[in-house]
Amino acid sequence: MQMSEEAINKMDKKKKKALESKGYKTGSAEDFLGLSKGGSEFIELKLSLSQALAKQRKQKKITQIQLAEMIKSSQSRVAKMEKGDPSVSLDLLVKSLLALGATQKSIAEAIG
Amino acid sequence: MQMSEEAINKMDKKKKKALESKGYKTGSAEDFLGLSKGGSEFIELKLSLSQALAKQRKQKKITQIQLAEMIKSSQSRVAKMEKGDPSVSLDLLVKSLLALGATQKSIAEAIG
DNA sequence: AAATAATATGTCAGATTTGACATATTGTCA
DNA sequence: TGACAATATGTCAAATCTGACATATTATTT
Could you tell me how many helices (H) and strands (E) chain B has, helices first? Predict the structure, then answer.
């Protein structure tokens, strides 16, 4: 298994870099390869929602702390959400958007 | 705080029943009230995806076991996903849809 | 520039979600 | 009907996500 790292590098160096730069784990072959099908699409989807969240919050002129209070979370977690940190779930992103007044429709638009 | 249960019942008896019947926790006042704004919308959204998943899978003529293998999960979890069990996350639903070949667009359509 | 506000990053114990398993129920076909 | 396949339900230890906190970095005001 000493070639796996190199195999990865040959395969899709750029995408790997892009993901690593965001903090996603791409260490082992399985991890990265397991990501390659619907995996990067999933991350893109999360990123779409992250951006929508930041946009919505700013539009409402609310600070991260205020949003955190609304959803009973913390400023640091809100920051992570908006930065697309891999530790935040889709659930939390969607709940936060809904708390900001988003609708199913507006969320669908943010995704599509 | 001995009135909280009754307060809930007065407030929205029907919605509470509907959620309880699906297995969602509505025991305490906070839990249910905390749900009432974006909460039921969130559940509806999950339900939309649950149904989309079941539909897609059947359209592809694959069994829950086969889908489970594709996403490296188990038949029982797939069943829970399609039943809208509260223990399944949006993340897992979306990942499963993507594994079935869904796109951001088709997911957005399923939601909206 | 210095103070202040807002956002970002790292860490971690507690909470939630997970795959796996056993088992029950339902559907299908001979 | 009975055998067999598919789906549903319950449980649980392990994995992942969470809020909270400390602290760093980056705007914004004064």
Answer: 7, 0
DSSP symbol at A60: T
Q: What is the pTM of this model?
A: 0.82
- Same domain assignment for residues A19 and A63: no
At position B77, the amino acid (one-letter code) is: R
B47 to chain A: which residues are within 8 Å by CB?
none
Tokens 């730069």 label which residue?
A21
Token readout for B7 is 């307060």
The answer for A23, left when phi > 0, alpha when psi is -120 to 50, beta otherwise, is left
Same domain, A39 and A16: no
What residues approach strand C to within 7 A at the CB?
A 23, 58, 63-65, 75-76, 79-80, 82-83, 91; B 68, 71-77, 86-89, 91-92
Amino acid at A97: L
Same domain assignment for residues A6 and A53: no
Whole domain around residue A88: which residue ranges?
35-111
Q: What is the pLDDT of residues A43-99, one digit of tens each?
A: 999 999 999 999 999 999 999 999 999 999 999 999 999 999 999 999 999 999 999
Q: Do A46 and A79 meet the contact criterion of CB atoms below 8 Å apart?
A: no
Query: Which residue's structure tokens are 């019947």?
Result: B21
